Amino acid sequence: MTWVAGADGSAYGVTNLPYGVFVHDGREPRIGVRIGDFVLDLAGAEAAGLVLAAGALGRPTLNDFMTLGRPQWTAVRQRVTELLTDVAHRAAVEPLLVPLDEVRLLLPFEVADYVDFYSSEHHAGNVGQIFRPGQPPLLPNWRHLPIGYHGRAGTVVVSGTPVVRPSGQRPGADGPTYGPSARLDIEAEVGFVVGVPSPLGAQVSVDDFTDHVFGVVLVNDWSARDIQAWEYQPLGPFLGKSFATSVSAWVTPLDALTDAFVPAPEQEPPVVDYLRDVPHRGLDLRIVVEWNGERVSEPPFATMYWTPAQQLAHLTVNGASLRTGDLYASGTVSGPERGQVGSFLELTWGGAEPVQLGGGEQRTFLEDGDTVTITATAPGPDGTTIALGEVTGTILPPR
Amino acid sequence: MTWVAGADGSAYGVTNLPYGVFVHDGREPRIGVRIGDFVLDLAGAEAAGLVLAAGALGRPTLNDFMTLGRPQWTAVRQRVTELLTDVAHRAAVEPLLVPLDEVRLLLPFEVADYVDFYSSEHHAGNVGQIFRPGQPPLLPNWRHLPIGYHGRAGTVVVSGTPVVRPSGQRPGADGPTYGPSARLDIEAEVGFVVGVPSPLGAQVSVDDFTDHVFGVVLVNDWSARDIQAWEYQPLGPFLGKSFATSVSAWVTPLDALTDAFVPAPEQEPPVVDYLRDVPHRGLDLRIVVEWNGERVSEPPFATMYWTPAQQLAHLTVNGASLRTGDLYASGTVSGPERGQVGSFLELTWGGAEPVQLGGGEQRTFLEDGDTVTITATAPGPDGTTIALGEVTGTILPPR
């Protein structure tokens, strides 16, 4: 129970408390925690001595705070919970609450490296069927390791940032042509944000996941399928992805997701030792994709074949170091049903089966002016339901 | 002519003047310029009012200086040239010269995003022949666009950093096995360092190359061929590359390379408009690869099919933004002859033809303890020859 009006019973009650960075009233960007429809100014709270975090809360990104490590993350969360639940603190804390509709939310952390995995069996299988019909949908390596690649960290943008339709080379009957992408798509994903770094040459074990990962964001990995199809062999996606990747403005701390862990799908054949996580756990995040306000899909994150702990262990098995701010995304989340897919490529089966939106509009891929919003909920502590921060974006015409 | 002893006639005379970051005498890291066998302390020079650069020379990386843009880069270079050639400045400047063998060189810039291209026709053709014998060596897209992908920025290390042999999954007869890479290789490349950023959604034209690119480094893109072969489909190289990428400690400014531009190979079929650079120019950098001190290859950078201006235009054609510190590498540099290849994969033709090193030792791929050093020279201003900073590394056993 919190004394903040309207927060109890909402998906942003005291069991949630995601972190973000906001601008208000012309002041410097600062860290805040969302509670109900308010943002608690943590920079102000630390300056007033209400919470202690080595000065890290007074910074314009979460990076310094995320470097501190799990004991400090948990201590700050406990203290913030006290401040928002014990009425004795109300007089001191209430002036630090800012209405959400008065703030502008910024990219909450400086992205170090961005890695994108490909860990949904249903997504990889659908893509295989669409692009390689008649062949085995999964490539031979897929069940042995979490396939991934590096994306462009510099074009990770915060939810709400408009996305200019990218141009590039697309395949044509008489060779490639240059022009705006005609197959602009989304990928609904979940991203994991690294707080605690690791040294070059060392491996991070599956057991050390919660020591390194601070929290979770929702991700829309916008994808230009025509550009991607022409460029991706043999070195993988490049310009088909690098124009923009949107993340939610709120980072949900892992401490808010302790009740969301569920057994992950069984893996067959058995994985090699460094990928064996016991317990083998995924997260029960229920994602919703809205296209121009219409709910078109509900991807279940619990169906992911590879878990975030396995992804982290794989990412570092070759000795690659971690930096604070590293972001690794799950890959498109798709469940077994057509109404559970995380891309429009799958929803329209390669563009062959348009979907009907409200007002009789039909869509295959994204049109200029379209808006896509991805949200998610999860079982929170104490029987509550918590929301992850939404990630939304609107397509602008090509320049 | 410089008054610095021993510099005239060396490959680090006043027509070269590369930038680096060094530590000396326990003081904070600072920016310096190499002249002969000395480093000119530019932080000290700026503090003494001998050179003006908005305070950017007092920083521990080149990033702030690189943000200033070409007019400032050229002005600082001209001023440093004056200081080192006009004996009137000798008394003030000489105390700022530090012997090279007393300094430790650091990574000269903070890497924002790292992109690796694949722009040598001979390299791509060799790889095609080795891995897809009997098929056309180049894929259909290769002559239409400079193929590239994102690498891991966080594991870019400065020359001299030891490289721990990476472990991971390698393909085996009965499925993948885990262990140290048995096919550890190099890739001799040239890297371009972005100084001036560009906004998201905008394209950078081929004509704007010199406005954005500050300078050049030598790159060794260490590659574990067995890990790469198993993981790379369908999303490209990941752990086979991400354990370490070495760059030279010295960044050679483009202003030192004005005489090194030469016509690039003719492109057929003609490229689409955004890739048409007039003049179509590459750089006459003559690379040397030494394996345990033995010269094994001399890759000619002038043979590269795609030019750095084309690579930059391609990288941004989809609206991807540039940040200060972005590094994009050419891809392995290989000429038409076996003695001109930039990887040991090619030098030993997939490991089938071992090379003979000094003392009767034979090699296919890298053994623990091996050292690889890549150097390069180029035609400098006024008929001089200038050296690019070397990039060297020694393989350590797996942990």
Automatic annotation (TrEMBL), chains A, B:
GO molecular function, one term: fumarylacetoacetase activity
Keywords: Calcium, Hydrolase, Magnesium, Metal-binding, Phenylalanine catabolism, Tyrosine catabolism
Domain Fumarylacetoacetase-like C-terminal: start-end pairs: 116-378
UniProt-annotated binding residues for Mg(2+): 221, 241, 245
Annotated binding of substrate, by residue: 118, 132, 228, 232, 332
Biological processes, Gene Ontology terms: homogentisate catabolic process; L-phenylalanine catabolic process; L-tyrosine catabolic process
Names of the cofactor(s): Ca(2+); Mg(2+)
Name of the protein in its database record: fumarylacetoacetase
